[in-house]
Every structure is written in structure tokens, then in C-alpha cells.
Amino acid sequence: MHRLEWILKMAFRDFRKNKGKLLLFISSIVIGIAALVAISSFGDNLSKDIDNQARELLGADLVLENNKPLGEQELDTMANELAEEINFASMVSFTKSNESRLVQIRALEGNFPFYGALETAPLAASQDFRDGQPKALVEKILMEQFNASVGDSIKVGKVKFIIAGALLSAPGQTGITATVAPIVYIPMKYADETGLIQYGSRVNYQRYYSFDQGVNIDELIKPYDEAWEEDHVDADTVEDKKRSTGRSFANLSDFLSLVAFVALLLGCVGVASAVNVFVKEKLASVAVLRCLGVSSTDTFLIYLTQIKLMGLVGSLLGAVLGSLIQFILPQVFSDFLPVDVTVAVSWRAVAFGIITGLFISILFAFLPLLKIRKVPPMMTLRTDEDAVKFSKDPWRWLVMVAIGVFIFSFSLYLLDGWEEALGFTGFVVLAFATLWFVGTGIMWLIRKFLPLSLNYPVRQSLSNLYRPNNQTISLIATIGLGTAMISTLFFVQNQLLDQVKFADKEDQPNMLFFDIQSSQVEEVKQSVLNEGLPIMQEVPIVTMRLETINGVDKSENAALPDEEKKSRGLYNREFRVTYRDSLIASETLAEGKLHSVESSKDSIFISFDKGYAGRTGIEMGDEIIFNVQGRPIKTYVGSFREVNFRQVSTNFLVLFPENVLEKAPKFHVVITKSETDKQAALVQNKIVKSFPNISVINLGLIVDTFEEILSKISFVIQFMALFSIVTGILVLVSSLIISKYQRMRESILLRTLGASSPVVRTINTLEYFFLGSLASLSGILLSFLATAMLNIWVFEFPVQWAWKEAGIIYVLITAITVLLGWLNGKNIINKPPMEILRS
User: Fold this and answer.
1) Strand partners, 697
2) 681 and 561 in a common domain
3) CA distance 738 to 818
4) CA dihedral in degrees (561, 565, 568, 573; nearest 10)?
5) Among residues 652, 665, 655, which one has the least CA distance to residue 542?
6) pLDDT value at position 82?
7) At residue 691, does pLDDT exceed 80?
8) Cα dihedral sign for 599, 602, 607, 613?
9) CA terminus-to-terminus distance, the chain
10) Domain-embedded: residue 371
11) In 3D, which of 97, 79, 11, 4 has the Cα closest to residue 684?
12) How far apart are CA 593 and CA 606, in angstroms?
């Protein structure tokens, strides 16, 4: 007990002299812990709110869905209340502006939603549009886009509807889904009158059920599972909605936690660097204690106690700050959230953050603290740091292994998959190794090849990068990784936008007309030609389902051993296929060959997309029977194609040969290209006016929508990347302040030797310029590597280099470094040497 008291007393005594420096050591982890606690609290609250609001998300206790009318169900008589919905994609025309847009039509009958509400403006519109008159609710974002107001009219097919109100939100609807697929609600009694429900229309039928409170819906519907699966009826319960929504947002929470973890790791590098400088300054004091008979273990425990105390303080500050930051997160993620998130302190998240912060600060401080164990008493006479032999210390390697295990374990906890955790750990190790290699390489090159012919300020500022107590490697690691994150975001975002801007490319179409009936094809093509536009493609599309593979149907497939099973998606999917005997520009033959059919006796060989076949277990030569509107067609897999689905074209998973499906019920797609957006809008409106059942995709509008979505996603990622940037800046500031006394001695020496204040200022400014340049260029280099890897293995884009964006990021990061360095050192440079010495 006496020994412990003495260690604590010595730790507090030394802490009083160095509390400013020690607080700076731990300030680096505050932002990381804050991010971790904020995201963890947000995730806990979101999970709780999804559970509490699952009924409002679904709007009912049970939803049945199929692409054909559901007919009478036994459950209909058991329910308290029923509602019906028919939904399909179609064009609507705004009569005031004479403009049209592809939307999601929802024809509703009944009092859906039973839980929650259709939020509208005005409030009464959610009921008024159901009064039997041709009235509609129109998504607010759609009304703003076409400058429409309540009381205006829209035309859906052959029926004109008065806009009863603006739809603000619907069950399960988010800002992103409203942007991609805006909704228009109409009464169901007018669905048939619109003339839009024809063969080939992609129509979904839904029935909503409300039951007595306390009824176990999952048990109630269990007897109907097999029959519904046979009829391709999808049943969605509140528990299903909880699981699917919770799983989706658990993945989001895990991703955000990883981003916060990266910020925390940056702070830990700052801690290790700062403790390293602190230890170097304390080596002489440690040597004195050793001369006085204090053991190396007790000396080590004195400074470890200080780090523990500061780790606890930093973790507590981070937990408090994180609990405050979580109040902002619901607004940041508002476009992505299907529920209203309540904000409350999650004590689990707070405890998790404090424990993590304390543990991680000790772990990363251990590496430099271990030097204290090796300080000999002779250091009182020999102040050379090299007298401390540390490279062969087994504890050093043990701590490094412990750091790697911690990173892997923490990422495994967040990701719940060892492969993903290993990949993340590998990325972190690769990133830090790359930045460390760049830092040490630059220092070695400067030390080895620094030209003596350079003028003195430049030579001195470069030499400072490898001087004792330099922060070169730690700053490159922290600022560099933060820069890499934000740079990679910008680079990938720009390349994604570049890839989808097909509307501006000369050889790419930008308008698709679909749901064209066979009787309308020639007339539609002639209308397009009359407007001076080319017919780039005219493609028939036949809808079918798969019945058996190699004689095995869906029920038999389910009973097979796992290694013999085919994907359930094959049996459940409705395939839309076309027929031709040749490939198009977006396809290449990967295996086998295309077979033609000359007579009715010939076997039918079809071609699958290679990627889809690999995912679902389809193999060359498999016998597949398709059901085409009640007629079975036996086929064999004769080839695999590699299909570029990013290219604007009519791309299909399954391709039939000619002379097989010509007489099957089908609809058609016509593809063309307009020269200007104005011409596209004019042609679109004329076609929709003449053929209300035809839908039009204007790819220029898709590009605009994609840019809007990407900007929202980018804002979220930039907000999270901000934690890393702020952490990097904090590490930079603390590193500069920590090395302030070292700079004092250098400045005094230079001033004493006759250097003027402008010369010293130039040396310091150049040093910060070189530091900022190295850190930002290292981060940009790493982001180029990450972007190239993403392009090659994830997006399969050609590698492009964003030089302009890289230049902007380089200038910003370098300028911030120079500014902070100048603010830190201006008082030292401007004061006379004697005044500094006296202080």
C-alpha cells in the first residue's frame, strides 16, 4: 500500500507540472470517442424507434402482394378492416405546364393506413381525395418540380384528377424514395378508367389487413405459407418489417461506427506520438529516479498512472460531447430515415465509449511508455536517447500485436463477419503502413540527399523535418488518412457522375419508351421519326416464370441438399426476356455460342448473363422449363454472356433465339436520342398525350435525380469524414503545441546567432508548408490508390485521375497547416531572445 501511495503521489506531483501537455495528449481521442458514442447512441435510439414504429412503417398488421389480383382469401373474414391497393409506374401530365413525368401510381380503396397517417397539406386532403371524386394526392417534391399547387389538375392515362393536396409522407416513405419514385395516390374506382392496366404493365396488387390487438400474425398466416409461395404471394408482417428495416439500418450504423473508429484510430496515433515526445523529455528525470533507487517498474507505473487519468478524462469528455452530437444526427440522416428518431442518452453507448477510450489510450500510449523501462541510471550523464535500447524489447512487439488484435476484434464486433473485419483491418494496416513508409522515406531522402546549395531558410526548414522530437510521421499518418477519406469520397463521386452522364454522350440514347403494345409499335416509331429522332432500338419483351430446372421444381429444390440447390430467386422471379440471334454492343460472349432455331423440332438453347448464372447456380447445359402465360417451353442453357448493365441499352438476364416467342403475348420498348432537353420534353409530352399507356424514361432527368441523391449521400459521408478531419487538425495543433518548447530553443539559438525575425519566420513557414504538403500529398496518393481499386474491383470503371479536385484538396490542407503553425509560433518569433529565456 505504501508503494502504491508513493506512485500515486509522484504521478500527481509530476502531473501538476505537465497537466497542459498531458491534456493535449488525450485531446486527440476526444473527437473519436464523441463520434463513437454519438453513432452508437443514434443506433440504439433508431433500433428502439423502428421496433416502436414498425406498425406505422407498414401501415397495417399484414400486407399481401402479388403481380396479379389476389382474389378472395380466408383471412378476409378474420380481419377487422381491409384496404386494397393497385400500384404501377406510369406517366402523369401536369395540365397547367403541359409537362409529364414518370411516377408511381397508387390506386387506393379503404382507410389505409390503419396505423400512422398519410401526411398531407392541407391536412384534410388525406381523406378528401377518397370522397369518390377524381382527386389525387401528389408528392410534394413533384409539385415543386412542376410548380403545381392544390386545385390544379393532372392527367393519369385517360382520366383528369384535381390535386386535393400535397403528400408530405406515407408509411415507409423517405426523402430518397420520394426523389427516386414520387407517389401519386388516386381512388381505386378510377384505376380501370385510366386505361393503363393492360398486358405488359408492371402492376402490383396489395391488400392491407388490420386485426385485433394481441393476435399473433405470424402464427395466424403460417397455414397459408405453402399456398402463397406456390402462387408467388408475398406476405409482409410487422415483425418482417422490423427485421428487414432493422437489418438495413444496423448495416448503416455499423458503417458509420467504422468511420468513427477510423477517427478514433487517428486520435490514437496522435496519442502515441504525443506520449513519445513527452517520454523523450522525461528521460533525464527518469534517469535521476533510477539513480535514487526507484525501480524501472515503479518509474513506468508513475507515468502510466498519468496516462490512465488523462485517458479517463478524455473519454468522459468525448462521451459528453458524443451525447450532444447525437441531437444533430437525426437531421443529418433525415432523408434516409423511415421513422421519427427520438433522442435520448444511451447509457450503454456512453459506457461503451468510456471503456473503449480508456483502453485504447492506454494501449497506444504503451508503445512509447515502454522506453521508460529501459532507461539506465547513466542517462543522467549521457543524454543521448540512443542509449535507450528498445528495438529488441519483446514487450514492444507484444503491444504491436495487441494493437492489431484490438483493431480486428473491434471491427469484428461492428461487422459480425470475420472476412469483413479482416478486410477492414487489412485496409487500416495498409493505409498506416503506406503513410509511414512515405514519411520515413521522405525523411531518409532529405537526410541523405539534401543539397547544400539550397539557400539557408529552405535547407533549415527541410532539416527540421527529421530533427529530434519531430512530428513528421504522426502528422502524415493522421492528416494523410483524413485527407485520403475525403479525397476518395470526392473522386468516386465525380467518377460515378461521369459514368451516368450518358445523356451528353453522342453515341448513347437518352429516351426510352416502354409498355408499348404490339398494335402501337409502328405508330409510335413513326411518331418518333416524324419528330426527327432516330430509332436506335426496338425490342420486344416477353414475361415468363421458371418452372423446373433439370426436372426439379421449387418444392423439390427446397428438399435437395444445400450443395445441389439452385437459388430460390430463380423460381420466384418473373423474367422479362427478349429474342434475337445476335449480340448487341453491351454484350460479349463469355462461354458457349448462340444457337438459332430453324424449325419446331430444333432444341431451344438460351443464353444467360454469366454473373447472374454464377450467383444462382445455373450451369451450361441445364434443362430449364419456362411458363409463358400458361404454356411450358423447354430450353437448354447454351451460352453465357457478359452484359454491361451500366450501358444504356435493353439488357436482359435471359436471351432467347428467334422463331420461338414471336407469337407470345408481349410489349415493346423503343429507344431514341434527342439533341436537347427541350426537344426531349416536347417529344415525351406528344407521345404521352397520344398514347397514355406508354411510359417514358428521360435519362437526362435520371442523371439529375442521381446527382441529387448522390449529393445527399455525399453530405452524410462528408459529415462523418469531418470527424476524421477535425481529429487530424486536433492532432496537428497538439503536436505543434507540444513541440513549442523545442521550437523555442531553436529560435533562441538562431536569434542569438544573428538570424533576424523574418528569417526565423520564413524557416518556420516553410517547415509547415513542407509538412502540410507531405501530409496532403500522402493522403491524396492513398486516395488515388483506393479509388483505382474501387474502380477496378467494385465499379469496373476505367481508372481516371481527378487532378483538379486533388489540387484543391492539396491547397486547402497545406494552407490550414501553415496557418496553424504560424499562429502557434508567432509569439516566439516576435519576442526578444532574453525575454523568452527569462520566462
Assistant:
1) 512
2) yes
3) 17
4) -160
5) 665
6) 93
7) yes
8) positive
9) 40
10) yes
11) 97
12) 10
- All three cell numbers of 588, joined, read 460479349
Query: Is 126 within 8 Å of 69 (Cβ atoms)?
Result: no
8 A C-beta contact, residue 527 and residue 690: yes
C-alpha cell at 171: 408509411
Domain boundary at 412, 428, 444, which? 428
Q: What are phi and psi of 70, to 5 degrees?
A: -75, -25
Q: How far apart are CA 263 and CA 266, in angstroms?
A: 5
Q: Are 143 and 166 in contact (CB under 8 A)?
A: yes
Q: Which of 551, 569, 540 is nearest to 660 (CA)?
A: 540
The CA distance from 795 to 709, in Å, is 18
137 and 47 fall within a common domain = no
In a domain, 741, yes or no: no
Cα–Cα dist 148/166, whole Å:
10
Provide the 8-state DSSP code for 794. Answer: I
pLDDT band at 503 (very low <50, low <70, confident <90, very high): very low
Q: Are 156 and 90 in contact (CB under 8 A)?
A: yes
DSSP H or E stretch at residue 692: none
| DSSP result, 30-79 | HHHHHHHHHHHHHHHHHHHHHHHTHHHHHSSSEEEEESS-----GGGGT-
Cβ burial, residue 740 (10 Å; 0-12/13-18/19+): middle
- Residue 413 lies in domain: 1-57+239-428
The grid coordinates listed for 260 are 468513427
Q: Identify whether residues 640 and 694 lie together within a single domain.
A: yes
Res 358: pLDDT: 87
The H-assigned helical ranges of 89-165 are: 125-128, 140-145
Q: Report the distance separating Cα 730 and Cα 280, nearest Å.
A: 21
Tell whether 362 and 396 lie within a shared domain.
yes
pLDDT tens profile 355-402: 988 888 888 888 778 877 777 776 665 555 554 555 567 787 888 888
> Residue 739's pLDDT is what?
60
Written as one string, the DSSP assignment of 637-676 is EEEEEEE-TTSSS---SEEEPSSSSTTS--EEEEEE--SS
Q: Do residues 44 and 109 share a domain?
A: no
List, in sequence order, the alpha helices (H) in 501-578: 521-530, 554-559, 568-572
Residues 6+ apart with CB under 8 A from 151: 162, 163
Please check the confidence at residue 569 and state whether its pLDDT lies above 90: no
Classify the C-alpha dihedral 56-59-63-66 as positive or negative.
negative
> Following DSSP, what letter does each residue of 708-767 receive, concatenated?
HHHHHHHHHHHHHHHHHHHHHHHHHHHHHHHTHHHHHHHHHHHHHTT--HHHHHHHHHHH
Segment 514-539, tens digit of pLDDT: 888 888 999 999 988 988 889 888 99
Q: Please tell me the distance from the alpha carbon of residue 812 to that of residue 25, in angstroms, as a whole number.
A: 25
> Are residues 376 and 252 located together in one domain of the fold?
yes
Q: State whether 600 and 676 are in the same domain.
A: yes
- Statement: residue 831 has pLDDT above 50: yes
Residue type at 337?
L
Distance CA 362, CA 312 (A): 10
Element (H, E) at 348: helix 347-369
Distance (Å, whole) CA 710 – CA 238: 31
pTM of the model: 0.72
User: Torsions phi, psi of 604, nearest 5?
Assistant: -100, 115
Range scoring the smallest mean pLDDT among 201-210, 304-313, 518-527: 304-313
Report how far residue 386's alpha carbon sits from residue 242's, in angstroms, rounded to the nearest whole number: 61
* Lookup: cell for 476: 502524415
Placement of cell 523523450 in the chain:
280
241 phi-psi bin (left φ>0, alpha ψ -120 to 50, beta other): alpha
Q: Of the candidates 424, 374, 426, 422, which has an alpha carbon nearest to the alpha carbon of residue 396?
A: 374
Does residue 577 sit within a domain? yes
> Taking the C-alpha atoms of 220, 222, 223 and 225 in order, what is their torsion angle to the nearest 10 degrees?
130
Residue 268 lies in a domain: yes
Q: How many domains does the chain have?
A: 3
Taken in order 468, 471, 477, 480, the sign of the CA dihedral is: negative
270 and 355 part of one domain = yes
Question: Of 705, 733, 762, which one is at a domain's C-terminal end?
Answer: 705
